[in-house]
């Protein structure tokens, strides 16, 4: 492929018929050569991230329109490097909980006119995202500051075993042996972790979220109807909000570190009756931390997304003040913690860790309940059909995000505590360290119970899958009348269709898991409250029984956590290398990376904030300079990008667009999970705005589906179902068995070529149907 951009011939206003066929591939990232079915391809615009390509013979098509009468000018938009599953980005999967919280913002029901409830819903999601950041930083502090610096370095038995890397922080080592100085050194690890997240967030919005949008005036209402939210001018430009969220979450994380730096020395100063100046400093630092924390919460509640206009202000003074102020506060806390206190010895867990962790669990539970109530209220006021989980989807997503990080954090802390504490004091049965907060240990004990729930759901799904296979065998044969019956072939087709139906049951499965997690979290908090100690360290009676049960489950949970981390990373690697795999993690990753950051700034970058402006600019400027029309041919996730770009066009340009989608998740996934943005009303408005629309789908496709399915209300005739496979058995025309393609290779179906010819003919009304042309394989 030629890589040197070759400028196209000058485009000019003319009265000729010229149709640009905009090809948009799915998340698979097909090469331009494959998309255009030609090895000689030239890049005409763009860069190494996203670019426009044409065949070498079509580069100067605008200068000779007479050669393209009755056929289109194919041009592909290649956005493969933007796709969320590149092999080099496996570690992005560790930020999946942040992405789930961000998804919750977009999952609300479409209750128009109820601004206060919608605003409350958005504020709750942003607060949940803030609590998730604090929880992650608390876990990092528990690892380095509590277990290593405070507990292990303060006990001789633990230090002797870890002297090769912890000897200089030993309580007997001299100057660095004082607890406050050990805490100061250990605080560098969570601060570095916060800095890494801050840097990743800044890199993403500098590279993607800062793209220039097409200038246009979009009124809130056109033709007497409220326009879809995705047509708002500032929808794909969230740089101001992201900058504020970035600085606020950074400040909240640093405040958490500062709290743990100050809590222990200030508690000692009050108990030991130290110098009054130190006591005053401790109070002043505590007040400053509280003020900065309240400022972060106020900022989260005060500022949301601005979509009615392109808001280019960045609040540089505020964001710099918050970020710099939080960093300066941590720097002020360091000398206070490092002040010489000769008689101070560390004992037990680090003060403040258990309070912060348990308090966060309670706050997060309350947020989930409040989100469930707000979602239910909005759902009852919404008229859109086929909304998944009856408005509880945001609460489900937030619960799953909390559980993922809480379980991983509890497992990591408990694992390190077991490793550091496996050597007891000489002559005693006690461990070398006190261990993590009881709530964390009880959470590890809940993991086996959660695994049983997951296995039960998998078993129910497997039974349902087999039932669907048996039921669909009759339909598999009925779709191919006249062909001889083959039991094995019918079973394979039925199995493919049954597996495709599993996608529709995934939200209910996730809802069941979220409910189980919420109940188990409440049970673990109750166990920690009743016993007042980790499992196995309880008294008699009921606390003793609960403790022994929790101790047994904790051992199993520790191994399951290690196994779960390996499985999670392996799933992320597989989904990264094969993003079109139809696994649950791959589907969630593709959905989450589409939406801009609205709640959590550390979520994975949104490829749409680069792709949508690119497509909008190209279609709008090409139509304006040539006076021609556009045929958008989009596959799978590319159809979602195409729809978002068409909504950003002016009404006059939208009427020049013909839309051909196939394997599209517009309604099946986006319309049901995000009904406020891709609901039935919005999709009807899109059909009304474009010149024509055709959507192709298969029963074996686990991602795509009809845009206006039966049971969703009356809709226009847009959907065309294709048979998959093309033929049931062997024949003279097809001597070899035809494959079951699912979401791939739609253009290999002859029915695709027929629909493509009809769409092309509609773009040339004065010249009739064009001659048959090659098949475009860019699925």
TrEMBL record:
Transmembrane segments: 90-108, 120-145, 183-200, 241-263, 283-301, 321-339, 359-379, 391-413, 446-465, 509-532, 552-571, 583-603
Region annotation (Disordered) ranges: 731-779
Low complexity composition-biased segments: 761-773
Coiled coil: none
SUPFAM superfamilies per UniProt: alpha/beta-Hydrolases (SSF53474)
Key words, A-Z: Membrane, Transmembrane, Transmembrane helix
Superkingdom as given in the UniProt entry: Bacteria
InterPro entries in alphabetical order: AB_hydrolase_fold
Protein name: Integral membrane protein
């Amino acid at each position: 492929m030629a890589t040197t951009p070759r400028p196209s011939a000058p485009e000019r206003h003319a009265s000729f018929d010229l149709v640009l066929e905009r090809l948009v591939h799915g998340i698979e990232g097909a090469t331009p050569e494959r998309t255009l079915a030609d090895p000689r391809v030239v890049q005409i615009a763009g860069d190494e991230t996203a670019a426009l390509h044409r065949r070498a013979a079509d580069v100067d098509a605008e200068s000779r329109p007479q050669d393209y009468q009755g056929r289109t000018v194919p041009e592909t938009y290649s956005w493969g490097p933007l796709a969320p599953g590149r092999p080099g980005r496996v570690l992005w999967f560790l930020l999946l909980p942040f992405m789930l919280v961000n998804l919750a913002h977009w999952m609300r029901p479409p209750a128009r006119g109820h601004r206060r409830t919608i605003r409350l819903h958005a504020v709750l999601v942003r607060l949940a995202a803030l609590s998730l950041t604090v929880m992650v930083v608390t876990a990092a502090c528990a690892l380095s500051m509590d277990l290593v610096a405070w507990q292990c370095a303060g006990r001789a038995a633990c230090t002797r075993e870890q002297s090769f890397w912890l000897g200089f922080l030993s309580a007997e080592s001299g100057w660095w042996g004082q607890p406050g100085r050990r805490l100061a050194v250990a605080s560098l690890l969570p601060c570095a972790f916060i800095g890494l997240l801050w840097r990743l967030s800044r890199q993403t919005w500098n590279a993607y979220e800062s793209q220039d949008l097409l200038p246009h005036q979009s009124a809130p209402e056109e033709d007497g109807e409220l326009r879809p939210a995705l047509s708002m001018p500032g929808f794909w430009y969230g740089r101001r909000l992201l900058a504020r969220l970035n600085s606020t979450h950074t400040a909240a994380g640093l405040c958490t570190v500062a709290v743990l730096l100050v809590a222990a020395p200030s508690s000692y100063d009050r108990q030991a009756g130290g110098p009054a100046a130190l006591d005053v400093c401790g109070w002043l630092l505590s007040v400053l931390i509280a003020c900065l924390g309240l400022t972060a919460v106020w900022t989260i509640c005060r500022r949301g997304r601005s979509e009615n206009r392109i808001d280019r202000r960045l609040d540089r003074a505020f964001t710099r003040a918050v970020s710099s102020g939080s960093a300066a506060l941590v720097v002020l806390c360091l000398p206070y913690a490092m002040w010489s206190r000769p008689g101070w010895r560390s004992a037990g867990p680090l003060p403040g860790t258990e309070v912060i962790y348990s308090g966060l669990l309670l706050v997060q539970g309350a947020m989930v309940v409040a989100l469930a109530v707000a979602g239910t209220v909005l759902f009852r006021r919404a008229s859109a059909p086929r909304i998944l989980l009856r408005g509880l989807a945001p609460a489900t997503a937030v619960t799953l995000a909390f559980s993922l990080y809480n379980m991983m954090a509890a497992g990591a802390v408990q694992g390190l505590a077991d490793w550091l504490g496996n050597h007891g004091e000489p002559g005693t049965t006690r461990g070398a360290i006190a261990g993590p907060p009881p709530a964390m240990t009880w959470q590890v004990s809940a993991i086996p119970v959660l695994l049983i729930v997951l296995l039960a759901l998998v078993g129910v799904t497997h039974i349902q899958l087999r039932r669907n296979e048996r039921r669909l065998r009759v339909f598999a044969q009925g779709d191919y009348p006249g062909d001889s019956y083959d039991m094995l072939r019918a079973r394979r087709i039925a199995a493919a269709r049954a597996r495709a139906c599993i996608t529709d049951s995934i939200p209910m499965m996730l809802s069941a898991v979220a409910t189980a997690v919420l109940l188990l979290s409440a049970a673990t908090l109750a166990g920690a409250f009743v016993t007042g100690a980790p499992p196995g360290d309880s008294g008699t009676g009921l606390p003793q029984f609960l403790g022994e049960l929790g101790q047994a489950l904790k051992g199993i949970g520790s191994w399951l956590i290690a196994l779960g981390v390996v499985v999670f990373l392996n799933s992320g690697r597989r989904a990264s290398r094969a993003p079109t795999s139809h696994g649950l993690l791959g589907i969630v990753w593709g959905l989450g990376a589409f939406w801009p950051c609205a709640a959590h700034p550390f979520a994975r970058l949104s490829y749409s904030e680069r792709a949508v402006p690119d497509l909008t600019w190209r279609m709008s400027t090409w139509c304006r300079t040539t006076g021609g029309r556009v045929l958008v041919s989009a596959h799978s996730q590319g159809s979602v990008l195409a729809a978002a770009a068409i909504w950003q066009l002016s009404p006059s340009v939208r009427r020049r667009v013909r839309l051909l989608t196939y394997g599209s998740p517009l309604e099946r996934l986006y319309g049901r999970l995000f009904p406020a943005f891709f609901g039935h009303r919005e999709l009807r408005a899109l059909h009304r705005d474009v010149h024509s629309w055709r959507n192709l789908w298969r029963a074996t496709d686990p991602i795509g589906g009809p845009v206006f399915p039966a049971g969703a209300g009356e809709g226009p005739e847009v959907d065309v179902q294709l048979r998959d496979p093309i033929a049931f058995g062997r024949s003279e025309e097809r001597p070899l068995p035809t494959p079951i393609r699912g979401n791939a290779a739609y253009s290999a179906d002859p029915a695709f070529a027929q629909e493509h010819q009809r769409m092309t003919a509609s773009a040339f009304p004065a010249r009739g149907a064009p001659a048959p042309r090659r098949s475009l394989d860019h699925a």
